[in-house]
Design brief:
This protein is an all-alpha fold. It has helices spanning about 10-15, 15-25, 25-30, 50-70, 80-90, 105-120, 125-140, 150-160, 170-185, 190-195, 215-220, 235-250, 270-280, 290-305, 310-315, 320-325, 330-335; strands at about 210-215, 225-230.
């Protein structure tokens, strides 16, 4: 990396995307992210990031690069206030809702930029000061403190408020949306994972009434690894009914929830968010967050009430136990008298 033609201050100042793409794929990026590098086994080679993770970081840095360009800044002139302004920009919203970035995503941006400035030997490192301000407001862990989770009654209200098809030619879309939302709540898929789910990803109902669902991160641009989750019994009928209708509609391609009958292309994320929000409204649920994240949170907490942290981590596709433990506090606070599954 250090010997790369593009790894020079001129390129980082004028065309940072080019050297960043080399940097993010290097072992140095991984090394700089280690909190205690001295404890690494010196005989074990450092593994670079997975392609799907590299893609996510590249998209993130691209947003920061465009912000700097629009504001006349470079990596050598930007300061901590600039980074905060970038993070607070409503244009950065990842969900299409116009809200500011969640604290977990803000921390991910800052940790990425910390490594970039460290590689460039920029001192003082402007991202470190930004990190301190974020941790001070979001807690030492940098995790979202306002995680939204539905209780049992709210989940039942949500399911009862799923879209209902009318008699118009577009009625199939509402049945598609109905099944998609049931899948997200019943199996814990992210919006991206649900958008890119394939018909072949659905297995056969097991002896508990649950339906295995395979999640392929390569097709959904997810940062999780390939894994299998379980669609719980209360949501299985909705998905299976849609699967049967989809077969009869003879839609091209493999996407489980296509945007159109003619092309079979994926839905737009903002469209999915709007439909989920409408279901919350019909259910009379005034939740602080009314998107796919709330459905996934609810799945995780519901599963933790009866399953181990390890199993729930597998169902969510999380590699680190600590990522699953994030949901434990909410699970402990949500003692429910009954179960949906």
């Amino acid at each position: 990396m250090k010997n790369s033609l593009f790894d020079t201050s001129d390129f980082w100042a004028t065309d940072p995307m080019t050297p960043f793409k080399e940097f993010i794929a290097s072992s140095e990026f991984v090394e700089l992210g280690r909190r205690v590098p001295a404890f690494r086994d010196p005989g074990k080679a450092v593994q670079p990031l997975r392609p799907v993770t590299i893609q996510v970081y590249t998209l993130m840095f691209g947003k920061f690069h465009r912000w700097m360009r629009d504001h006349g800044k470079t990596l050598y002139t930007v300061n901590d206030d600039d980074i905060l302004q970038f993070l607070n920009s409503r244009a950065l919203d990842e969900s299409g809702t116009g809200e500011q970035l969640k604290s977990t995503i803000r921390v991910k941006y800052v940790r990425m930029l910390e490594r970039v400035f460290q590689h460039l030997e920029v001192a003082p490192n402007p991202a470190q000061s930004t990190a301190f301000q974020i941790y001070k407001t979001a807690g030492a862990s940098g995790k979202d403190l306002d995680m939204v989770v539905m209780d049992t009654a709210q989940q039942q209200a949500f399911m009862q408020a799923l879209p209902v098809a009318n008699d118009t030619p577009a009625g199939w879309k509402r049945r598609r949306d109905r099944a998609m939302q049931a899948l997200m709540l019943g199996a814990g898929l992210t919006v991206a994972e649900a958008m890119h789910a394939k018909t072949r990803d659905l297995g056969s109902v097991d002896n508990t009434g649950s339906l295995p669902v395979t999640v392929n991160p390569e097709s959904s641009h997810s940062t999780t690894r390939e894994h299998r989750t379980l669609l719980r019994p209360f949501a299985v009928p909705e998905v299976m009914q849609w699967l049967e209708e989809r077969r009869k509609l003879d839609i091209p391609g493999q996407l489980l929830f296509p945007a159109s009958l003619a092309t079979g292309k994926p839905l737009d994320k903002a469209t999915v968010y709007r439909q989920v929000k409408k279901t919350f409204a019909r259910a009379g649920l005034e939740m602080p967050r009314q998107g796919g994240r709330t459905l996934r949170n609810t799945f995780a907490v519901r599963e933790l009430e009866s399953e181990s942290v390890e199993l729930v981590g597998e169902l969510l596709g999380l590699e680190r136990r600590s990522s699953t433990e994030y949901y434990l506090d909410a699970a402990r606070k949500k003692a429910r008298p009954q179960s949906l599954s």
